[in-house]
């Protein structure tokens, strides 16, 4: 059983919120009493997910946002604050995969695309969330890195570069903003059973052999980690890159 938190009166923003880890985290925030802004590249899917939460009695809005576009990221934060009056917590989860590629054959287009979303996208969101939280003098941000931010694997150079970069952004912002009452941390999911990962696992049974826990993770397990990092229970936790990976990175 996961711990329960009381986020009544607080506001959470989740990117990549229409499915997978983002949707699970948005649901968890809502169930803990927070008003939630669900942002996703697929605006209609974000709005459907928000309607699911409002139908269950929660406060939620859906927002279309390409996180790689700074103007859209700024508008996303502004819309959240306009709707709910403040921003207390953010889970910057939006990310993409690119096909496994030999490092010598990686295309510039692949490298630019994965870094535009996974690294620049975290930067744009974090930047504008921090601007709002700086005004308030409080807040908690969780950036989604990956086990790929902690280790290297064959044919994953561009993706892992983006996820290592997320940890650098997180640590630097954490040191800068901790004195201002704002905590910034990262979560590093392992192999999680989500739509995005399903394609990656095809033909990669070897990955499963490297799971000490013997199974895939669930989106709800990542949500539990994100909520803990945003909660008062983690009030002295600053600048960490928390592996939630079933032991994968202990190798």
UniProtKB/TrEMBL annotation:
Domain of life: Bacteria
Gene Ontology molecular function terms on file: glucose 1-dehydrogenase [NAD(P)+] activity
Gene3D superfamilies: NAD(P)-binding Rossmann-like Domain
InterPro entries: NAD(P)-bd_dom_sf, SDR_fam
Pfam families membership: adh_short_C2
EC numbers on record: 1.1.1.47
Keywords attached to this entry: Oxidoreductase
Broad enzyme group: oxidoreductase
Keyword Oxidoreductase: yes
Membrane-crossing residue ranges in chain numbering: none
PANTHER family assigned to the protein according to its UniProt record, in alphabetical order: DEHYDROGENASES, SHORT CHAIN (PTHR24321), ESTRADIOL 17-BETA-DEHYDROGENASE 8-RELATED (PTHR24321:SF8)
Annotated family: Belongs to the short-chain dehydrogenases/reductases (SDR) family.
Identification of the protein by name: Glucose 1-dehydrogenase
Naturally occurring in which organism (per UniProt): Streptomyces glycanivorans
Source lineage: Bacteria, Bacillati, Actinomycetota, Actinomycetes, Kitasatosporales
């Amino acid at each position: 059983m996961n711990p329960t938190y009381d986020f009544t009166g607080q506001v959470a923003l989740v990117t990549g919120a229409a499915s997978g880890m983002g949707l699970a985290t948005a649901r968890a925030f809502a169930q803990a009493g927070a008003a939630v802004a669900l942002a996703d590249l697929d605006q209609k899917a974000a709005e459907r997910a928000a309607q699911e939460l409002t139908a269950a009695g929660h406060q939620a809005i859906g927002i279309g946002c390409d996180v790689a576009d700074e103007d859209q990221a700024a508008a996303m934060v502004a819309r959240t604050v306009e709707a709910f009056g403040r921003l207390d917590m953010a889970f910057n989860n939006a990310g993409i995969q690119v096909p496994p590629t030999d490092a010598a054959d990686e295309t510039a287009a692949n490298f630019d695309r994965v870094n535009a979303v996974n690294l620049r996208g975290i930067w744009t969101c974090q930047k504008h969330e921090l601007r709002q939280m700086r005004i308030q003098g409080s807040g908690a941000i969780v950036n989604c890195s990956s086990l790929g931010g902690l280790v290297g694997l064959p044919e994953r150079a561009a993706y892992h570069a983006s996820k290592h970069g997320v940890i650098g952004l997180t640590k630097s912002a954490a040191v800068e903003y901790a004195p201002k009452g704002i905590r910034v941390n990262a979560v590093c999911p392992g192999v999680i059973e989500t739509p995005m990962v399903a394609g990656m696992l095809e033909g990669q049974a070897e990955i499963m052999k490297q799971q000490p826990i013997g199974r895939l993770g669930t989106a709800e397990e990542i949500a539990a980690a994100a909520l803990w990092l945003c909660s008062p229970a983690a009030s002295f936790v600053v600048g960490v890159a928390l592996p939630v990976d079933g032991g994968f990175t202990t190798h």
